[in-house]
Amino acid sequence: MSIEKLRWMVFASLMAALTAVGAYIHVPIGPVPIVLSTLFVILSGLLLGSRWGLASMGLYLLVGAIGIPVFAGGKGGFAHFFGPTGGYLLGYVLAAWVTGFISERSYGLLILDIFAVLIGSLAIYGLGVPWLKIVTQMSWPKTLMVGMVPFLIGDAVKASVAIILARAIRPILKRQLTNE
Predict the structure, then answer these.
(1) How many CB atoms lie within 10 A of CB 106?
(2) Coil, strand or helix at 75
(3) What is the per-residue pLDDT across 95-133, written as a single tens digit (0 to 9) for each?
(4) What is the DSSP letter of 71?
(5) How far is CA 95 from CA 5, 24, 28, 43, 137, in A?
(6) Which residues pair with 27 in a beta bridge?
């Protein structure tokens, strides 16, 4: 195994760990809590790209699925994938991948990073909201009011912070990955 691959694995593991820490910072407001972990989901895509961002969130979900308490409120277990937040959790993997995919092609342009974060955030909602509707049997308007609307402002703030952090950390990460 190359040192570069090992470094990518360490960074992916670090982002998975930060996502877990972010899940402990939560505000229970209904079936779907407000969590800080979405900041790290988006940041993993921006910093690690599609492949390693996906690996990072896959690791996070695997650790949670086997029962390690890394989900919101210090919970874990496979059953969470079948509860109200299951779609959002699966959306983390898609969000990290799509954010990374777009970010890899952004050539450092701010507008494309913003687009990447927007599409990544929509990926979380795109899987989370329909899953919430299926699990809770709420109407579409109620599902949107419970599973999306309360999070929009906070997610916009987290997305902005992710872009700021990514633009500051990328040069450092690049230096780390090129130093043998």
Answers:
(1) 15
(2) strand
(3) 999 999 999 998 889 999 999 999 999 999 999 999 999
(4) B
(5) 22, 20, 22, 10, 25
(6) 34
Q: Are 96 and 120 in contact (CB under 8 A)?
A: yes
- Domain of residue 26, CATH code: 1.10.1760.20
Amino acid letter at 98?
V
**In which element (H, E) is residue 101 found?**
helix 86-104
Mean pLDDT of the residues in the chain: 95
Q: Is residue 131 within 8 Å of 149, Cβ to Cβ?
A: no
- Single pTM value for the model: 0.94
Identify the domain containing residue 172 by its residue range.
3-178
What is the distance in angstroms between the CA of the first residue and the CA of the last residue of the chain? 13
- Quick one: tokens of 19? 């996502």
